[in-house]
Amino acid sequence: MSDTSWLRTSAVRSGTTVPPAPGLLPALVPMLREWLPRQRWFAGKGRPISGFGLVSATELLPADGRLGAPGLLHLLLDVHHDAREGASGAGHRLGQGQPTDTYQLLLGTRALLPPALAPALVGHAVGGPLDGLTIYEALHDPRLTSLLLERLRAPGRTGHLRFGSEPGAAIPAGLAPRLSTAEQSNSSVIYGDTFILKLFRRVAPGPNPDLELSLALARAGSRRVAAPAAWFEALGLYDEPATLGVLQRFLPGSAGAWELALQAVEDGSDFSGEAHALGRATAEVHLALARALPTSTLRRPQIELLAAAMAARLDAAAAAVPALRPYRAALRAAFDDLAALGARGTVLAAQRVHGDLHLGQALRTRPGGWVLIDFEGEPARPLPERRRAAPPVQDVAGMLRSFDYAARHHDPSAAEAPEWARTQRAAFCAGYAEAAGTDPRDEPVVIRAFETDKAVYEVLYEARHRPAWLSIPMAAVRRLAQPPHGRTP
To answer: Rounded to an integer, what distance in angstroms lies between the CA atom of residue 145 and that of residue 136?
Structure first.
Protein backbone atom coordinates (compact mmCIF):
# COMPACT_ATOMS: atom_id res chain seq x y z
CA MET A 1 0.00 0.00 0.00
CA SER A 2 1.07 3.60 -0.53
CA ASP A 3 2.54 5.61 2.32
CA THR A 4 -0.07 7.93 3.88
CA SER A 5 1.97 9.66 6.60
CA TRP A 6 1.39 12.99 4.78
CA LEU A 7 -2.27 12.88 5.85
CA ARG A 8 -1.51 13.73 9.45
CA THR A 9 -1.05 17.43 8.70
CA SER A 10 -2.51 17.91 5.24
CA ALA A 11 -4.44 21.16 4.74
CA VAL A 12 -5.23 23.79 2.14
CA ARG A 13 -6.18 26.94 4.04
CA SER A 14 -3.25 27.22 6.41
CA GLY A 15 0.03 28.70 5.26
CA THR A 16 1.97 26.89 8.00
CA THR A 17 1.31 23.26 7.08
CA VAL A 18 2.23 21.02 4.20
CA PRO A 19 0.01 21.08 1.11
CA PRO A 20 -2.53 18.32 0.56
CA ALA A 21 -1.24 15.07 -0.83
CA PRO A 22 -1.22 14.78 -4.61
CA GLY A 23 -3.89 12.49 -5.90
CA LEU A 24 -6.07 12.21 -2.78
CA LEU A 25 -8.98 14.34 -3.96
CA PRO A 26 -9.01 13.10 -7.57
CA ALA A 27 -9.17 9.53 -6.29
CA LEU A 28 -12.09 10.31 -3.96
CA VAL A 29 -14.13 12.53 -6.28
CA PRO A 30 -15.74 9.82 -8.46
CA MET A 31 -17.09 7.89 -5.47
CA LEU A 32 -18.10 11.02 -3.50
CA ARG A 33 -19.99 12.43 -6.46
CA GLU A 34 -22.22 9.34 -6.34
CA TRP A 35 -22.30 8.80 -2.58
CA LEU A 36 -22.85 12.30 -1.17
CA PRO A 37 -26.24 13.07 -2.78
CA ARG A 38 -27.64 9.85 -1.28
CA GLN A 39 -26.90 10.92 2.30
CA ARG A 40 -29.86 12.31 4.20
CA TRP A 41 -27.73 15.10 5.70
CA PHE A 42 -26.53 16.33 2.30
CA ALA A 43 -28.11 19.74 1.73
CA GLY A 44 -27.44 19.96 -1.99
CA LYS A 45 -30.05 17.48 -3.18
CA GLY A 46 -31.37 18.52 -6.57
CA ARG A 47 -28.42 20.86 -7.19
CA PRO A 48 -25.74 19.56 -9.55
CA ILE A 49 -22.26 19.30 -8.02
CA SER A 50 -19.87 21.36 -10.09
CA GLY A 51 -16.68 20.63 -8.19
CA PHE A 52 -14.87 19.76 -4.97
CA GLY A 53 -12.16 21.39 -2.90
CA LEU A 54 -10.14 19.77 -0.13
CA VAL A 55 -10.00 21.99 2.96
CA SER A 56 -8.10 19.58 5.22
CA ALA A 57 -7.28 15.90 5.66
CA THR A 58 -6.24 14.48 9.03
CA GLU A 59 -5.26 10.89 9.67
CA LEU A 60 -6.68 9.79 13.05
CA LEU A 61 -5.67 6.19 12.48
CA PRO A 62 -3.13 5.08 9.85
CA ALA A 63 -5.03 4.71 6.59
CA ASP A 64 -2.66 2.35 4.80
CA GLY A 65 -4.46 -0.96 5.33
CA ARG A 66 -1.58 -2.61 7.20
CA LEU A 67 -2.36 -6.02 8.69
CA GLY A 68 -6.02 -5.61 7.79
CA ALA A 69 -6.55 -2.94 10.46
CA PRO A 70 -8.99 -0.11 9.65
CA GLY A 71 -7.80 3.43 9.08
CA LEU A 72 -9.66 6.62 9.96
CA LEU A 73 -9.45 9.72 7.81
CA HIS A 74 -11.06 13.04 8.77
CA LEU A 75 -11.89 15.35 5.87
CA LEU A 76 -13.27 18.83 5.50
CA LEU A 77 -14.48 19.10 1.95
CA ASP A 78 -15.86 22.01 -0.06
CA VAL A 79 -18.70 21.01 -2.37
CA HIS A 80 -19.42 23.53 -5.14
CA HIS A 81 -22.77 23.85 -6.87
CA ASP A 82 -23.74 25.56 -10.09
CA ALA A 83 -24.38 29.21 -9.21
CA ARG A 84 -27.41 29.20 -11.52
CA GLU A 85 -29.14 26.84 -9.08
CA GLY A 86 -29.35 29.65 -6.49
CA ALA A 87 -28.08 27.71 -3.49
CA SER A 88 -27.72 29.11 -0.02
CA GLY A 89 -26.81 27.53 3.27
CA ALA A 90 -24.64 27.36 6.37
CA GLY A 91 -21.45 27.07 4.34
CA HIS A 92 -22.42 29.39 1.50
CA ARG A 93 -19.60 31.86 0.86
CA LEU A 94 -20.64 34.85 -1.21
CA GLY A 95 -18.38 36.49 -3.71
CA GLN A 96 -16.62 33.33 -4.86
CA GLY A 97 -18.76 32.64 -7.92
CA GLN A 98 -20.14 29.26 -6.87
CA PRO A 99 -22.40 28.45 -3.91
CA THR A 100 -20.31 26.27 -1.63
CA ASP A 101 -21.01 24.09 1.40
CA THR A 102 -18.23 22.67 3.56
CA TYR A 103 -18.89 19.13 4.81
CA GLN A 104 -17.24 17.07 7.51
CA LEU A 105 -16.54 13.47 6.47
CA LEU A 106 -15.14 10.61 8.54
CA LEU A 107 -13.97 7.89 6.19
CA GLY A 108 -12.79 4.43 7.15
CA THR A 109 -10.27 2.53 5.05
CA ARG A 110 -9.80 -1.22 4.88
CA ALA A 111 -8.23 -3.65 2.48
CA LEU A 112 -11.42 -5.73 2.63
CA LEU A 113 -14.77 -4.62 4.04
CA PRO A 114 -16.47 -7.09 6.42
CA PRO A 115 -20.01 -8.08 5.38
CA ALA A 116 -21.47 -6.28 8.44
CA LEU A 117 -20.11 -2.99 7.09
CA ALA A 118 -21.35 -3.46 3.53
CA PRO A 119 -24.10 -0.79 3.88
CA ALA A 120 -21.39 1.74 4.77
CA LEU A 121 -19.51 1.35 1.48
CA VAL A 122 -18.48 4.59 -0.23
CA GLY A 123 -16.30 3.10 -2.95
CA HIS A 124 -12.95 1.64 -3.92
CA ALA A 125 -9.93 3.89 -4.36
CA VAL A 126 -8.12 3.71 -7.69
CA GLY A 127 -4.90 5.67 -7.81
CA GLY A 128 -3.65 8.20 -5.29
CA PRO A 129 -2.33 7.48 -1.81
CA LEU A 130 -5.29 5.21 -0.91
CA ASP A 131 -4.97 3.09 -4.03
CA GLY A 132 -6.48 -0.36 -3.60
CA LEU A 133 -8.28 0.39 -0.34
CA THR A 134 -12.01 0.19 0.32
CA ILE A 135 -13.47 3.49 1.52
CA TYR A 136 -16.52 3.50 3.81
CA GLU A 137 -18.54 5.66 6.23
CA ALA A 138 -16.54 5.37 9.46
CA LEU A 139 -19.49 6.01 11.79
CA HIS A 140 -20.82 2.53 11.04
CA ASP A 141 -17.63 0.92 12.40
CA PRO A 142 -17.61 0.44 16.22
CA ARG A 143 -13.80 0.23 16.22
CA LEU A 144 -13.52 3.69 14.69
CA THR A 145 -16.28 5.36 16.70
CA SER A 146 -14.65 3.95 19.85
CA LEU A 147 -11.46 5.73 18.78
CA LEU A 148 -13.38 9.01 18.53
CA LEU A 149 -14.55 8.61 22.12
CA GLU A 150 -10.98 7.96 23.25
CA ARG A 151 -9.80 11.16 21.57
CA LEU A 152 -12.53 13.09 23.39
CA ARG A 153 -11.47 11.51 26.69
CA ALA A 154 -7.92 12.76 26.16
CA PRO A 155 -8.01 16.45 25.18
CA GLY A 156 -5.29 17.55 22.81
CA ARG A 157 -4.51 18.29 19.21
CA THR A 158 -4.05 16.17 16.09
CA GLY A 159 -3.16 18.21 13.04
CA HIS A 160 -5.89 20.80 12.61
CA LEU A 161 -8.23 19.05 15.04
CA ARG A 162 -8.39 20.10 18.69
CA PHE A 163 -10.25 17.99 21.24
CA GLY A 164 -11.45 19.61 24.46
CA SER A 165 -13.59 18.70 27.45
CA GLU A 166 -15.50 20.37 30.24
CA PRO A 167 -13.48 20.48 33.50
CA GLY A 168 -14.61 17.70 35.81
CA ALA A 169 -16.44 15.78 33.09
CA ALA A 170 -16.13 12.05 33.73
CA ILE A 171 -16.17 10.11 30.46
CA PRO A 172 -15.81 6.36 31.07
CA ALA A 173 -13.72 4.23 28.72
CA GLY A 174 -15.11 1.31 26.78
CA LEU A 175 -18.66 2.55 26.24
CA ALA A 176 -20.25 0.54 23.43
CA PRO A 177 -21.02 2.79 20.40
CA ARG A 178 -24.04 2.61 18.12
CA LEU A 179 -24.96 4.89 15.25
CA SER A 180 -28.21 6.76 15.77
CA THR A 181 -30.80 6.62 13.00
CA ALA A 182 -32.75 9.66 14.22
CA GLU A 183 -30.71 12.59 12.88
CA GLN A 184 -31.54 14.53 9.73
CA SER A 185 -29.02 17.33 9.13
CA ASN A 186 -26.24 15.81 11.26
CA SER A 187 -25.03 12.40 12.45
CA SER A 188 -24.93 11.07 16.00
CA VAL A 189 -23.26 8.16 17.80
CA ILE A 190 -24.63 6.96 21.14
CA TYR A 191 -22.14 5.55 23.66
CA GLY A 192 -23.75 3.09 26.04
CA ASP A 193 -26.59 4.89 27.78
CA THR A 194 -24.34 7.70 28.92
CA PHE A 195 -23.33 10.05 26.09
CA ILE A 196 -24.29 11.01 22.56
CA LEU A 197 -21.81 12.52 20.09
CA LYS A 198 -23.31 14.84 17.49
CA LEU A 199 -21.15 15.44 14.42
CA PHE A 200 -22.03 18.56 12.45
CA ARG A 201 -22.03 17.67 8.78
CA ARG A 202 -22.04 21.21 7.39
CA VAL A 203 -19.25 23.28 8.88
CA ALA A 204 -18.72 27.03 9.10
CA PRO A 205 -16.23 29.22 10.97
CA GLY A 206 -17.17 30.07 14.54
CA PRO A 207 -18.71 28.30 17.51
CA ASN A 208 -21.78 26.24 16.71
CA PRO A 209 -24.74 27.49 18.81
CA ASP A 210 -25.53 23.92 19.87
CA LEU A 211 -22.26 23.81 21.83
CA GLU A 212 -22.22 27.50 22.75
CA LEU A 213 -25.74 27.66 24.22
CA SER A 214 -25.70 24.19 25.79
CA LEU A 215 -22.46 25.05 27.60
CA ALA A 216 -23.85 28.39 28.78
CA LEU A 217 -27.01 26.76 30.11
CA ALA A 218 -25.19 23.86 31.79
CA ARG A 219 -22.67 26.19 33.44
CA ALA A 220 -25.59 28.30 34.69
CA GLY A 221 -27.05 25.22 36.37
CA SER A 222 -30.03 24.77 34.06
CA ARG A 223 -31.78 21.40 34.23
CA ARG A 224 -33.37 22.01 30.83
CA VAL A 225 -30.37 21.01 28.73
CA ALA A 226 -28.27 17.92 28.04
CA ALA A 227 -24.93 19.10 29.43
CA PRO A 228 -21.90 18.92 27.08
CA ALA A 229 -18.93 16.91 28.31
CA ALA A 230 -16.48 17.28 25.40
CA TRP A 231 -16.17 18.63 21.88
CA PHE A 232 -13.76 19.02 19.00
CA GLU A 233 -13.08 21.76 16.48
CA ALA A 234 -10.96 22.71 13.48
CA LEU A 235 -8.13 25.17 14.04
CA GLY A 236 -5.99 27.19 11.63
CA LEU A 237 -8.29 26.85 8.65
CA TYR A 238 -10.46 29.93 9.20
CA ASP A 239 -10.24 33.19 11.10
CA GLU A 240 -11.76 31.42 14.12
CA PRO A 241 -12.19 27.79 15.22
CA ALA A 242 -15.04 25.83 13.62
CA THR A 243 -17.04 23.47 15.84
CA LEU A 244 -17.09 19.93 14.45
CA GLY A 245 -18.80 17.86 17.14
CA VAL A 246 -20.10 17.84 20.69
CA LEU A 247 -20.41 14.99 23.19
CA GLN A 248 -23.43 15.48 25.47
CA ARG A 249 -25.21 13.67 28.24
CA PHE A 250 -27.56 11.03 26.85
CA LEU A 251 -31.06 10.79 28.31
CA PRO A 252 -32.11 7.13 28.26
CA GLY A 253 -35.78 6.48 28.78
CA SER A 254 -36.79 9.96 27.64
CA ALA A 255 -39.78 10.47 25.36
CA GLY A 256 -39.93 12.90 22.45
CA ALA A 257 -42.57 15.62 22.58
CA TRP A 258 -43.46 15.04 18.92
CA GLU A 259 -44.22 11.36 19.47
CA LEU A 260 -46.17 12.10 22.65
CA ALA A 261 -48.21 14.78 20.90
CA LEU A 262 -49.03 12.52 17.95
CA GLN A 263 -50.15 9.80 20.34
CA ALA A 264 -52.39 12.26 22.16
CA VAL A 265 -53.98 13.32 18.88
CA GLU A 266 -54.49 9.69 17.89
CA ASP A 267 -56.03 8.77 21.25
CA GLY A 268 -58.01 11.97 21.64
CA SER A 269 -56.34 12.39 25.04
CA ASP A 270 -55.52 15.57 26.92
CA PHE A 271 -52.05 16.99 26.24
CA SER A 272 -52.57 20.46 27.71
CA GLY A 273 -50.73 19.62 30.94
CA GLU A 274 -47.65 18.62 28.97
CA ALA A 275 -47.97 21.68 26.73
CA HIS A 276 -48.20 23.91 29.81
CA ALA A 277 -45.09 22.33 31.33
CA LEU A 278 -43.24 22.65 28.04
CA GLY A 279 -44.12 26.36 27.97
CA ARG A 280 -42.65 26.74 31.46
CA ALA A 281 -39.48 24.91 30.42
CA THR A 282 -39.07 27.14 27.35
CA ALA A 283 -39.40 30.27 29.46
CA GLU A 284 -36.87 28.92 31.97
CA VAL A 285 -34.39 28.35 29.15
CA HIS A 286 -34.92 31.88 27.87
CA LEU A 287 -34.44 33.36 31.34
CA ALA A 288 -31.24 31.36 31.86
CA LEU A 289 -29.84 32.40 28.47
CA ALA A 290 -30.62 36.05 29.20
CA ARG A 291 -28.67 35.79 32.46
CA ALA A 292 -25.74 33.89 30.98
CA LEU A 293 -25.20 35.72 27.68
CA PRO A 294 -25.40 39.33 26.47
CA THR A 295 -28.79 40.78 25.59
CA SER A 296 -29.72 43.73 23.40
CA THR A 297 -32.58 46.04 22.49
CA LEU A 298 -34.06 46.27 19.01
CA ARG A 299 -35.09 49.80 18.09
CA ARG A 300 -36.62 51.23 14.96
CA PRO A 301 -33.71 50.54 12.55
CA GLN A 302 -33.25 46.95 13.78
CA ILE A 303 -37.00 46.22 13.78
CA GLU A 304 -37.35 47.56 10.24
CA LEU A 305 -34.43 45.39 9.11
CA LEU A 306 -36.04 42.38 10.79
CA ALA A 307 -39.35 43.04 9.03
CA ALA A 308 -37.59 43.61 5.71
CA ALA A 309 -35.76 40.28 6.00
CA MET A 310 -39.08 38.51 6.63
CA ALA A 311 -40.61 40.22 3.60
CA ALA A 312 -37.65 39.20 1.45
CA ARG A 313 -38.04 35.57 2.51
CA LEU A 314 -41.74 35.80 1.62
CA ASP A 315 -40.93 37.12 -1.86
CA ALA A 316 -38.38 34.37 -2.45
CA ALA A 317 -40.78 31.66 -1.28
CA ALA A 318 -43.63 33.03 -3.39
CA ALA A 319 -41.37 33.03 -6.44
CA ALA A 320 -40.63 29.33 -5.85
CA VAL A 321 -44.10 28.15 -4.75
CA PRO A 322 -46.99 29.38 -6.92
CA ALA A 323 -49.60 28.39 -4.30
CA LEU A 324 -48.24 31.11 -2.02
CA ARG A 325 -48.55 33.99 -4.47
CA PRO A 326 -52.25 34.84 -3.96
CA TYR A 327 -51.55 35.46 -0.25
CA ARG A 328 -48.34 37.43 -0.58
CA ALA A 329 -49.83 40.91 -0.14
CA ALA A 330 -51.94 39.88 2.86
CA LEU A 331 -49.02 38.10 4.54
CA ARG A 332 -46.75 41.07 3.97
CA ALA A 333 -49.17 43.11 6.13
CA ALA A 334 -47.90 41.19 9.17
CA PHE A 335 -44.37 42.36 8.45
CA ASP A 336 -45.52 45.91 7.71
CA ASP A 337 -47.26 45.98 11.08
CA LEU A 338 -44.04 44.84 12.76
CA ALA A 339 -42.08 47.64 11.07
CA ALA A 340 -44.77 50.11 12.13
CA LEU A 341 -44.20 49.14 15.76
CA GLY A 342 -40.63 50.36 15.48
CA ALA A 343 -41.75 53.53 13.73
CA ARG A 344 -44.04 54.27 16.69
CA GLY A 345 -41.12 53.96 19.11
CA THR A 346 -41.73 50.45 20.39
CA VAL A 347 -38.57 48.57 21.35
CA LEU A 348 -38.11 44.79 21.55
CA ALA A 349 -35.85 42.90 23.95
CA ALA A 350 -33.51 40.53 22.13
CA GLN A 351 -31.31 37.70 23.41
CA ARG A 352 -29.88 34.37 22.35
CA VAL A 353 -32.67 31.90 21.61
CA HIS A 354 -33.01 28.29 20.50
CA GLY A 355 -33.70 29.38 16.92
CA ASP A 356 -35.47 26.27 15.64
CA LEU A 357 -37.81 25.24 18.44
CA HIS A 358 -40.52 22.68 17.75
CA LEU A 359 -41.89 19.52 19.35
CA GLY A 360 -39.07 17.46 17.86
CA GLN A 361 -36.57 19.45 19.92
CA ALA A 362 -37.96 18.57 23.35
CA LEU A 363 -37.58 15.42 25.46
CA ARG A 364 -39.64 14.53 28.52
CA THR A 365 -37.54 12.96 31.27
CA ARG A 366 -38.44 11.59 34.66
CA PRO A 367 -37.51 13.09 37.01
CA GLY A 368 -36.84 16.60 35.75
CA GLY A 369 -39.59 17.23 33.22
CA TRP A 370 -38.77 18.74 29.83
CA VAL A 371 -35.30 19.14 28.31
CA LEU A 372 -34.63 21.12 25.10
CA ILE A 373 -32.10 19.80 22.58
CA ASP A 374 -30.47 20.81 19.28
CA PHE A 375 -29.66 24.47 19.89
CA GLU A 376 -27.93 24.94 16.53
CA GLY A 377 -30.86 26.87 14.99
CA GLU A 378 -32.17 26.38 11.47
CA PRO A 379 -29.27 24.65 9.66
CA ALA A 380 -30.18 26.31 6.35
CA ARG A 381 -29.44 29.77 7.73
CA PRO A 382 -25.87 31.17 7.84
CA LEU A 383 -24.06 30.65 11.15
CA PRO A 384 -23.72 34.39 11.99
CA GLU A 385 -27.50 34.76 11.59
CA ARG A 386 -28.14 31.78 13.87
CA ARG A 387 -25.90 33.33 16.55
CA ARG A 388 -27.68 36.70 16.42
CA ALA A 389 -29.86 37.89 19.31
CA ALA A 390 -33.59 37.72 18.58
CA PRO A 391 -36.88 38.32 20.42
CA PRO A 392 -37.73 35.20 22.49
CA VAL A 393 -41.15 35.10 20.81
CA GLN A 394 -39.36 33.60 17.77
CA ASP A 395 -39.08 30.31 19.69
CA VAL A 396 -42.67 30.58 20.90
CA ALA A 397 -43.93 31.00 17.34
CA GLY A 398 -41.98 27.92 16.25
CA MET A 399 -43.60 25.80 18.94
CA LEU A 400 -47.08 27.12 18.13
CA ARG A 401 -46.60 26.08 14.51
CA SER A 402 -45.46 22.65 15.69
CA PHE A 403 -48.69 22.04 17.58
CA ASP A 404 -50.56 22.75 14.35
CA TYR A 405 -48.37 20.21 12.54
CA ALA A 406 -49.09 17.56 15.17
CA ALA A 407 -52.83 18.19 14.98
CA ARG A 408 -52.88 17.86 11.19
CA HIS A 409 -50.37 15.03 10.91
CA HIS A 410 -53.00 12.34 10.27
CA ASP A 411 -55.11 14.58 8.03
CA PRO A 412 -52.93 17.24 6.38
CA SER A 413 -55.81 18.48 4.23
CA ALA A 414 -58.13 19.36 7.12
CA ALA A 415 -59.89 22.59 6.20
CA GLU A 416 -60.31 23.94 9.74
CA ALA A 417 -57.67 24.37 12.40
CA PRO A 418 -58.23 21.45 14.81
CA GLU A 419 -59.47 22.39 18.26
CA TRP A 420 -56.67 20.25 19.70
CA ALA A 421 -54.05 22.64 18.30
CA ARG A 422 -55.80 25.72 19.68
CA THR A 423 -55.96 24.13 23.15
CA GLN A 424 -52.26 23.23 23.18
CA ARG A 425 -51.20 26.64 21.88
CA ALA A 426 -53.10 28.33 24.70
CA ALA A 427 -51.68 25.95 27.31
CA PHE A 428 -48.13 26.46 26.08
CA CYS A 429 -48.44 30.26 26.22
CA ALA A 430 -50.01 30.09 29.69
CA GLY A 431 -47.13 27.94 30.96
CA TYR A 432 -44.61 30.30 29.39
CA ALA A 433 -46.27 33.32 31.02
CA GLU A 434 -46.30 31.57 34.40
CA ALA A 435 -42.49 31.21 34.38
CA ALA A 436 -41.48 34.32 32.41
CA GLY A 437 -43.91 36.80 33.92
CA THR A 438 -44.89 38.00 30.44
CA ASP A 439 -47.43 36.37 28.12
CA PRO A 440 -46.40 36.08 24.44
CA ARG A 441 -50.05 36.69 23.53
CA ASP A 442 -49.67 40.23 24.86
CA GLU A 443 -47.48 40.98 21.80
CA PRO A 444 -49.91 40.00 19.01
CA VAL A 445 -48.18 41.96 16.25
CA VAL A 446 -44.78 40.45 17.03
CA ILE A 447 -45.96 36.89 17.43
CA ARG A 448 -48.06 37.11 14.25
CA ALA A 449 -45.04 38.32 12.28
CA PHE A 450 -42.83 35.50 13.54
CA GLU A 451 -45.52 32.87 13.04
CA THR A 452 -46.10 34.13 9.50
CA ASP A 453 -42.36 34.01 8.80
CA LYS A 454 -42.24 30.43 10.08
CA ALA A 455 -45.24 29.37 7.99
CA VAL A 456 -43.61 30.83 4.87
CA TYR A 457 -40.46 28.82 5.62
CA GLU A 458 -42.58 25.70 6.04
CA VAL A 459 -44.34 26.24 2.70
CA LEU A 460 -41.00 26.40 0.90
CA TYR A 461 -39.64 23.37 2.76
CA GLU A 462 -42.68 21.18 2.17
CA ALA A 463 -42.93 22.17 -1.49
CA ARG A 464 -39.35 21.03 -2.00
CA HIS A 465 -39.17 17.98 0.26
CA ARG A 466 -42.66 16.74 1.27
CA PRO A 467 -45.29 17.96 -1.21
CA ALA A 468 -47.95 15.78 0.45
CA TRP A 469 -47.60 17.94 3.57
CA LEU A 470 -47.81 21.30 1.80
CA SER A 471 -51.45 21.66 2.80
CA ILE A 472 -50.42 21.92 6.49
CA PRO A 473 -48.54 25.23 6.27
CA MET A 474 -50.89 26.45 3.54
CA ALA A 475 -53.77 26.17 6.01
CA ALA A 476 -51.77 28.40 8.35
CA VAL A 477 -51.07 30.80 5.49
CA ARG A 478 -54.80 31.19 4.82
CA ARG A 479 -55.45 31.83 8.51
CA LEU A 480 -52.58 34.31 8.89
CA ALA A 481 -53.61 36.13 5.71
CA GLN A 482 -56.88 37.15 7.37
CA PRO A 483 -56.83 40.59 9.01
CA PRO A 484 -56.29 40.26 12.77
CA HIS A 485 -59.08 41.25 15.13
CA GLY A 486 -59.60 44.98 15.13
CA ARG A 487 -57.62 45.64 11.95
CA THR A 488 -59.29 46.66 8.72
CA PRO A 489 -58.15 45.02 5.48
So the answer is: 13
